Amino acid sequence: PETAVRLRCPCGPVTAFVPWDGHRSGNPVRFHSVPAFAAATDVAIDVPGHGKVVVDIGYGGTFYAFLNAEQLGLDVCFSKTRDLVSAASAVTEAVKTQFKLHHPESEDLAFLYGTILTDGKDAFSEEPTTNICVFADEQVDRSPTGSGVTARIALQYHKGLIQLNQTRTFRSSTTGSLFTGKAVKATKFGGYNAVVVEVSGEAFYTGTATFTVEEEDSLKYGFFFK
């Protein structure tokens, strides 16, 4: 009734669990993250145009900076998306220049992927908490973000705001889509106290891709740059 699918992601192995009724996959689907941890909390950052703000930095497969949008004079639920994106991007650039990240296993992963603005409702509650994830080149996630929810759960657990197996609901401010997340296991990752996080939500097929290898292709097995 449920199939485990083990995926090799850039951050490491992630196991997804997909319902199956004998004919097609269903919802909700869920995955167990790589070890997630609080990289730093209450870090003061000077953001040009916004002044000094305080951010938390969490890792959930990649690093994000987190802060309440109110620190930037915005409301994550009602402000214009363009304003939220501009402010979050400014925070990302400021953190990159003012805070050094470290990954326990791979320095290739020691970079800030983006900033997640929240409604500040981090303490455990049955009510959803809303955020917007602005990542890469000012892209906005349509969902609450799998790695982002993972990192946010890790921060909440680190701060004692949630306990193991307490489920929180996260809402995307852009589309209203919902994920749930919970810390299911405490672990260690390098020198960090970490957790494995389960994230659950809806998933739908959006496309397929076919790759073909022709025998005459001299580069069919790939190549390396020296």
Automatic annotation (TrEMBL):
Residue ranges crossing the lipid bilayer per the database entry: none
Catalytic reactions on record: trans-3-hydroxy-L-proline = 1-pyrroline-2-carboxylate + H2O
EC number: 4.2.1.77
InterPro entries the record matches: Pro_racemase_fam
Keyword Lyase: yes
UniProt keyword list: Lyase
Keyword Lyase (UniProt): yes
Molecular function as annotated in GO: trans-L-3-hydroxyproline dehydratase activity
Quaternary structure annotation from Swiss-Prot or TrEMBL: Homodimer.
Annotated family: Belongs to the proline racemase family.
Name of the featured protein: trans-L-3-hydroxyproline dehydratase
Record gene name: L3hypdh
